[in-house]
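Blinded run. Sample ID left blank on purpose so nobody reads anything into the name before looking at the predicted structure. Input follows.
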Amino acid sequence: MSDRDPRDPWDLSRLGDEDFVSRPLEPGQWERGHDDDLPPGTPPPPRPGRRLRPDERAELRQRARQNRELPPEYFGQPPAPTPPPKRHWPRWGGVALILVVIIIAGNIGLLRGRDGGGSETPVAPASATSEVAMVVDTPTPPVDTPTPEPTATQTPEPTPTPEPTPDPRFSGVIVCLDPGHGGSDRGYERSDTDAAPAMQEAPLNLEIALAVAERLEAYGFEVVLTRTDDVDVNADGSDVNNDGKTRSNQSGREAESAEARDELQARINVCNDAGADLLVSLHINGYPDPEISGVETWYSASRPFVGLNKLIASLIYDELLRGYADAGYNVTERGVRDDSTVDAGSHQDLFDSYVITGPAQPGAIIASQMPGMIAEVLFISSEHDARILATDEGRQVIIDAYVRAILAYFNTILGPEGRPD
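Blinded prediction complete.
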């Protein structure tokens, strides 16, 4: 590196004579303008003080280049005391000392031999050079220390997740889970692509609902499901809603509408007949545009218990977002939504809200009698979302979110004392 390399922050040659001071200057005498373009890591400007003589400045520059550090004088501090130089024996000083000791010891031995003292065995003369070589050049044998056997590091066992235990407050609390679609209604479907395999909504909804039910029961809830298999709930095509219309006595689009209304009424009846305290309808979204993705939940604002509807919809939405974020999934947030804003033509066949959560549709639908919501956890039609749904980890995030949200809902409405008798 050149003595004047501007990249070297320790090169004091970039400083002017006014920068080297050791006593305070008057206010305003120091200006830093010329240092504004220095690279990061450049040491701070010196404190004001007495200007140093040229020979002092030259000495500081030399010390900075050699030691890669700034001397105290640069910061307006008194010079550090110079430690006394260490004394080093010359390289051959030790050798010379050993020679002297050997010669003296040998002479003493000879003298003792002449005087009859000491050992009677004559000492063989030894070359001074060979003695020095033995002392200086012979390596010290290593200490024969046994090498300890390596100890295998034991991998700690993962701490098991504690099993849920029944909470007495949840005894007698009934949750109705509605796995959307099933049987002849496959829900939204996708074909196999490089991004994710082929999927159908109906079996995924059921898989998730069954897992949520098992977890909730372990906490002490009673859980009913509108279906426990991949079947139609109104499998025999009965006129469940008592409007006189079924698929068999209607034709065309009206036959499809009659079948859909009877199927939805059959699901509502399961929850009503069980006296459920909460209805959660589990779905996965779909849309022709594969770029549309994300999570959304829906609630009815047209019911007397609108506050509870919105509470459970908000809790499930928040827990889904939290679970996706914790798992490292980047998911679009589509919001907690009032179902009166739904596109009736594409979703509800002329009804202006979702049927499963009410309100009643005179002459067509008898409404559910409990708070509820609909969750659209992801878009099966989205390549991004489908990759999450295709993994056990992704589906587990959804299951955990449902369970946490339902627990939070009943913890909120029951309080610490539980349901009053």
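Unblinding after everyone has recorded impressions. The chain has a mean pLDDT of 77.
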